[in-house]
Amino acid sequence: MRRWRVGTLSLGILLIVLGIVLLVARFRQAAILSALLAWWPLLLVLIGGEILVYLYTAKEPEPTIKYDFFSIFFIAVMIFCSIGLYGLTATGMLDKICRAAASSNMAVDVPPYKTAADGGIKNIVVSAPRGSLEIKRSSTLEVTSFGQAVVTAADREEAAALLAQNRVVMQREGDTLFVRYPAAAYPGSFAPHIREISHTLLLPAHTAVEITSCGNYIDLDLDSRAVGQNWLIKGSGRIDITVDAAADLTIIAHVGNLHQLGGSADWQTEERKNTRAGQDISYQGTVHWGTGKNILTVMLEHGEINVNEL
Length: 310
Hints:
The chain is α/β, with parallel strands linked by helices. It has helices spanning 8-28, 33-38, 42-57, 69-91, 93-102, 156-165, and strands at 3-5, 64-66, 104-116, 123-127, 131-137, 142-153, 169-173, 176-180, 193-203, 208-223, 231-243, 249-255, 261-263, 268-271, 283-289, 294-309. The protein has two domains: 3-102, no CATH class; 105-309, no CATH class.
């Protein structure tokens, strides 16, 4: 009497189909993960069909189906896999996993964005981004922002759309131009996201500038040739300032401790004993070049400021 081991035919068909699909995908560069996961219920149909086909095609009057260790193990694995796949599908995790598998990290240029800063603009207020920001002097009467980013996305079109949603916003209110960088949130490994981003901001020299970290820990690289009169930086982060030896610049830094003052600059420090209750700043460091007519004030809560001379 011939006995049928449940799962033998199903496993054979499954391996043949999977091999063919993978072979076709290799030569055609097709994304097949989504298609395979979409058809996972056929696993149960295949096992049930195998049993019914054998029962109806068997020549014995009482055909015997063998449920040995292999059959029980194979069926158990298929059932648990099916339950798991159903749970992933119902919660939306399966689509996220497929998207993550199809995504890759790619370097993308942040498109430039600019606006005119004519004589009517007296102040520029910059809400610094989370990440790297480099500020240089503009050779024109324009405020220009551009940069580079590392984006996790399925293709460059998706990466470009993601950067477009997180682009800088420049808005004029009276004689003040507000430059706002969005704080790109990290949505998790399964969704397209911006892994790293660095911005470069070109500012004209005729305006007063205020730069705030807005709760972010900023990484600011400042060229002193961009600094005009009445500049203010406040918040937390790492601030690197490169100063030309021929500059007319005074830097006044308010910090919580002297270890926050770094670089090759010759800091002149003093303790501020008249600070308000609850204020962290307790020291002032000053350094100047030339006549010191351009004044940069730094209110640093946490982090460090490094001033180096060219």
